[in-house]
Amino acid sequence: MDTLRGIPEHIEAEFGDSILARDEAVALLGGAPGLGPPDLCWLQKAPKARSLLGGSAEAQGYYHYVLGRDVSSTAAVAAYFALLNSKVEPCGVLQGLWSPEFSIQRGFYCCYDALSCMDLRCELCVPGGVVAGCVDAAGALHDATPQRFMAAQVSSFIRAMLYDPELRVNGGSVIAYEPCASAAAERALLGCVMALYQDGSLPGALQDMYAQQGCGVLPEHMDVALAALWQHFRRRQRWEAAAAFFRQLAAVHPAATLLWGAAQRC
């Protein structure tokens, strides 16, 4: 079978259409900066062998969208490809008569880095491994440096926290994972955020949003990274950890002082 257990996918009408559409979206975002689209996971699948009743043995393109996955390194993306590979559904005895068993031959995982307006792309080669690069609005290729992985990870986190919940629930082929599902993942993310504020990448690269923080803090324009972090701590009711982080961040980014005070009142 060509399906992945528990993963809703689209089948491309023309091979590679979803990657071409991604290229067009990245080109448009270069002139109108924003948080960007959810991550795109594209897979090339092909039958391991023809079924007994014949059928096409050509490769086909499949894709789905992702929110909240760890994209901090090629190893993290390789782990997602391994997860998908484990979900390839085998054919039953009778199904094998008309529907051959498929395997994943190649894949792309694309994560939009809203800070640099580039698309971080990790390619799965079978056999081989995962290699990474970045594509800008003009279609030029760039190296996937640790700094760009860091920015892509923070961009992915912001989208996962702030995108409309209706998209997460009713997005069809949008798969929403819980970002920072472990204490180690949270520490790694907060380290990335702190580093990006320290080097000046945040908050200037992202447009402000109008947010109501509550807890005695009036609505105001604030950068989306702070808004996403506040949402993260609020959902988990981890106010002590929030106060500690925002206090540290306030030394670099004074606007975080408001959230430090708000977290102390919760």
Helix content: 25-40%
Q: Main beta sheet: strand number and arrangement?
A: 8 strands, mixed
Summed over residues and divided by their number, the pLDDT gives a mean of 86
Percentage beta strand: 15-25%
According to DSSP, the number of beta strands is: 10
Structural class comes to alpha+beta
Shape: globular
Rg measurement, Å = 21 Å
Individual helix count: 9
* Uncertain runs: 213-220
Our measurement of the CA-to-CA distance between the termini, rounded to an integer number of angstroms, reads 51 Å
- N-to-C SSE string, H for helix and E for strand: EHEEHHEEEEHHEHEEHHH
In words, what does this structure look like?
The protein is of the alpha+beta class and 266 residues long. It contains nine helices and ten strands. The protein has helices at residues 17-29, 74-86, 95-98, 146-162, 165-170, 183-198, 224-236, 239-250, 256-264; strands spanning 10-11, 39-47, 60-67, 102-113, 118-125, 130-135, 141-142, 174-176, 208-211, 220-223. Strands 1, 2, 3, 4, 5, 6, 7 and 8 form an eight-stranded mixed sheet that branches. Mean pLDDT is 86; it is low at 213-220.
Question: Which features characterize this protein?
Answer:
two-stranded antiparallel sheet; 9 helices; 266 residues; eight-stranded mixed beta sheet; alpha+beta; 10 strands
Walk me through the topology:
Layout: E1 10-11, H1 17-29, E2 39-47, E3 60-67, H2 74-86, H3 95-98, E4 102-113, E5 118-125, E6 130-135, E7 141-142, H4 146-162, H5 165-170, E8 174-176, H6 183-198, E9 208-211, E10 220-223, H7 224-236, H8 239-250, H9 256-264
Parallel strand pairs: 3-8
Antiparallel strand pairs: 1-3, 2-3, 2-4, 4-5, 5-6, 6-7, 9-10
Helix pairs in contact: 4-6, 4-7, 8-9
